[in-house]
Amino acid sequence: MINNWLKIAFINYKKNWLSTIINLFGLTIGLTGFMLILMHWNDEESFEKWNPKKDSIYYFQTFHKKENSYGNNISIPMARRAKEVIPGVEDYVLFNGSGIGLKMTTKVKTVFQKDGMTGTESFFKFFPFKLVAGSYKDALKGESAIALSTDAAKNLFGKTNVAGESVKFDNKNYVVTAVYELPKENSQIKPEFIINPVEQIKNDEKNWGNFNYGALFMLKKGTDPKVVEQKFVKDIFEYRASLDKDPSGMTIQQYLDLYGPTDSELTPLDQIKLHAKASWFGNPDFKTLMILFTLSVLIVVLSAINFINLKTAQASQRAKEIGVRKAIGSTRSNLVLQFLMETFVICIASYFLSLALTELLLPSFNKFYDKEMKMNDWHIYFYSFVMVIMVTLISGLIPATYLANFKAIETLKGNFARSKHGVWLRNGILTLQLIISSFFIIGGLIVNQQVKHMMNKDLGYNGKQIVMINFNETNPKPWLKYERLKTEMRKIKGVTDVSYGEAVPGSDRSSSSNMDFMDKSIQGQHGSMDYDYLKFLNVKLKKGRWLDPNLSSDTVNNVLVNEAFVRKFGWKDEDALKNEIKPGFDNKKYKIVGVVKDFNIRSLRKEVEPIIFFHYRETEWKRFNVYNIQLKIDQNDIDGTVKRLKTYWQSNVEPGYPFDYYFLDKQFAKTFEKYQKQQTLFTILNAMVLMVALLGLFALSSLMIEQKLKDVAIRKTLGASDRILILGLTKQFLWITLTAVVISIPISYYLMNEWLKDFAYRIDMPVWPFIFSLIVLLLLTFSVVSIKAYQATKVNLVKYLKYE
Predict the structure, then answer these.
(1) Residue 410: which H helix or E strand, with range?
(2) Which Gene Ontology CC terms are recorded (predicted)?
(3) Same domain, 270 and 154
(4) Which run of H or of E encompasses 146?
(5) Are 578 and 544 within 8 A, CB to CB?
(6) Within a domain: residue 800?
(7) pLDDT higher for 720 or 665?
(8) I need a labelling partner for 725 at 20 to 30 A (CA). Which of 47, 91, 105, 307 fits?
(9) Residue 55's CB: how many other CB atoms inside 10 A?
(10) Do residue 203 and residue 104 come from a single domain?
(11) pLDDT tens-digit series, residues 176-223
(12) Model confidence band, residue 759 (pLDDT cutoffs 50, 70, 90)
């Protein structure tokens, strides 16, 4: 029986070769997109799965109700107290530096070793990398201990068995206590070397408000993380508030509402990559991934709809076959199974073709996302095969049931086409397909407009021809290094100006704290700088004056603020110049002497934050954070000037260290990369959807016009012209298209408005994409259907009227 079914199937595949190709093509494209996005999702979810202790390790985040935002930092006293007073907390590990690069010297050679990090003593309890040499016991105890990865050991010593060997950097000798092998699986935490910042921890161990560290907590077996989160508020945050609050009468709750944090969040280790609210290791973006996955599934749905339409369109060719089979005793269930099998053959063929196409496209997809994915995960094959089964059932059952319901007598007489069975269903299927198509067109245009809007927005500064060079941060007095280099590097040919700023556009390296004025407090960034840094960036002064090197007070307690700072306090610009604020990072008050226009330091996804600017000598500890020098270079000799800077830097400033530099405008442009990728993906998906949608229009126009051929023959016999017949046949499709776009408009508006909410600087919802979608789909519908309609006007009258 199955052999007979297969023979019939392949006869029909050959007979309807165009429909077969359309089905294969549509499903292959849809399944390929689904597989690629599924691989991307699985790869993102696979981070930290290698860690055997992942189920008991949680990443700590704070929540600030006042700003409605999450933070990824904690202070040392908070972490220590959590271990002491919260019963479910077994241990913690702190880190405050990653991606560190240092010039290291051994008895063998001197090399620059990159990708290190700092971690407290319990690091290897949380990350049990495979031990190659030495011991994890006391591996990070003391300030002279260092642990190396196998690659770092080979880089420094030429071998891996180097426990006990000596390494020198920062004018200190370190002893290699352990050598470990990094996991080959995905992980955000893969340090090439680890050191314990003992000295820094000593300085911060009593400072409750110094949120300089990321933290992971290990919970005891059976501990509910939600209970630990609640205890953090009660036993840690409120305790800190009781120590720090103003004794003049402020309650603990008032302190928390004013300064925060007000709540905590614990995210399992293996969910940090996608599901953390804020992360030390990069911003999670599960929402975008879900959007892409949903869009890929919609493309498969469109492909399935095409399959349904084309299968049903073949009804006229299969009617007599079905009638004969029913007449000789074939049951309805047998016919359904036969048609399901025919559908499955097409689907499984598309599945294997999509596997080949996915393998072919994977290198480009990896390059697009900077990944190294391989098709070696059984989940990909399993879930994509499940999708094939679902498509088989969805796209097979509907046409199979439709065809199997034909009545034997009527089909043998040739009257099956008179039945109106399934008209509403088919119209509904076409409407759904056009709704999806309309959404993709509208969504693609809005994404494109938003990305263009961000790229063309006036950022409030000019970063062109500005090169930023990062210092080696081990210098004991970096501000003196900057001042010396400022004088010397001005003399290099092609350098037109030199300055320094802590809060650099395109960089996340800036700090924030509470800013207090009377009984009000806001959270604001603070950026130390040289006197002329804001003028160096061409930032505009709105009110007051710039910092002046001739005024001693400008290195004591005078600051500039931006417009966002003034707005946050509810002041007018002139009010700000009369006020003094007390920042949480210092014990003295600062006088505002100028207000500058807002300019974007971070991504345009976020609003410009309140920020104060002051000279780096003004706050004692800030001078130790001077970490870069910025140079404006001659636009007519950019390449030559960069080469001269590199030669000077590597020979006179930091020999043995890489020349770590970038252009400010290009660095800020990297904040757009994510959205440019979304724009590219939407464009690709749009092309795929329109292609599949055109095939769907072709399929259903074939079906519905074929069912009306007898009506066409009658009307033509009665004298109807070709133009009237074509308009009559296309009118129904145009109404369906109009209905579909009207339905899609509120859906598209809602979904795209939700997407736009992620951007502080966004376009107003444009009207023209909705109108454009309607016009395009009407034109496409008319173009495709009118071709079929024109062919219908050439119908053989005798063939369709001989039974009348």
Answers:
(1) helix 408-413
(2) plasma membrane
(3) yes
(4) strand 145-149
(5) no
(6) yes
(7) 665
(8) 307
(9) 12
(10) yes
(11) 999 999 999 999 999 999 999 888 888 888 888 888 899 999 999 999
(12) confident
For residues 78 and 206, what is the distance between their CA atoms, to the nearest angstrom?
10
Q: Burial of 222 by CB count in 10 Å (0-12 exposed, 13-18 middle, 19+ buried)?
A: exposed
Q: What residue ranges in 182-260 does DSSP mark as E strands?
A: 193-195, 214-219
CA distance linking residue 124 with residue 128, whole number of Å: 5
Query: What average pLDDT score do residues 322-329 get?
Result: 61
**Structure confidence at residue 757 (pLDDT):** 83
pLDDT in tens, 614-630: 999 988 888 888 889 99
Residue 419 predicted with pLDDT over 50:
no
The pTM assigned to this predicted structure is: 0.81
**DSSP states of 293-319:** HHHHHHHHHHHHHHHHHHHHHTHHHHH
- Cα dist. 320→17, 314, 326, 333, 704 in Å? 20, 12, 10, 18, 19
Residues 6+ apart with CB under 8 A from 779: none
State the average pLDDT over residues 5-25.
70
Domain boundary, last residue among 216, 249, 275 = 275
Same domain, 287 and 252: no
364 SS3 class: helix
Count of C-beta atoms within a 10 Å radius of residue 750: 10
Confidence band for 248, pLDDT divided at 50, 70 and 90? low
In the chain, how many domains are there? 4
Q: Is residue 426 part of a domain?
A: no
Residue 447 shares a structural domain with residue 342: no
Local confidence band at 170 (pLDDT 50, 70, 90 cut-offs) = confident
> Among 135, 116, 70, 497, which Cα is nearest to 275's?
70
Which residue, among 441, 750, 482, has the nearest Cα to 617 in the 3D structure? 482
341-352 per-position pLDDT tens digit: 778 888 888 899
Q: Which residue has the higher pLDDT, 426 or 512?
A: 512
Whether residues 73 and 187 share a domain: the answer is yes
Shared domain for 400 and 324, answered yes or no, is yes
Check if the beta carbon of residue 593 is closer than 8 Å to that of residue 559: yes
Q: Are 196 and 95 in contact (CB under 8 A)?
A: no
- Residue 346: name the closest of 36, 16, 3, 692 by CA: 16
pLDDT for residue 442 is more than 70? yes
From the CA atom positions of the chain, what is the Rg in Å? 34
Instruction: Report pLDDT for 413.
Output: 52
The CA distances from residue 458 to 383, 637, 716, 777, in Å, are 46, 26, 64, 35
DSSP state of 623: G
- Residues 448, 577: one domain? no
Q: What is the pLDDT of residue 602?
A: 75
Q: What is the DSSP string of 721-742?
A: -HHHHHHHHHHHHHHHHHHHHH
684 lies in the same domain as 656: no
What is the amino acid identity at position 333? S
Q: How many residues does the chain have?
A: 804
Residue among 393, 303, 395 nearest 353 (CA): 303
AA identity, residue 207: N
Tell me, what's the pLDDT at 360? Answer: 92
Q: Which domain holds residue 333?
A: 1-49+283-421
709: confidence class by pLDDT, cuts 50, 70, 90: low
Q: Tell me which range, 11-20, 300-309, 418-427, is most confidently predicted by mean pLDDT.
A: 300-309
Taking the CB of residue 749, how many other CB atoms lie within 10 A of it?
Answer: 15
Give dist(CA 728, CA 712) in Å, integer. 10
Query: Angle, nearest 10°, between helix axes 2-15 and 332-369?
Result: 60
Domain end marker among 640, 671, 702: 671
Whether omega before 261 lies within 30 degrees of 0, making that bond cis, reads yes
Interacting residues of 547 by C-beta distance below 8 A, sequence separation 6+: 531, 532, 554, 558, 560, 593, 594, 613, 614, 615
Structure tokens at 472: 């080696």
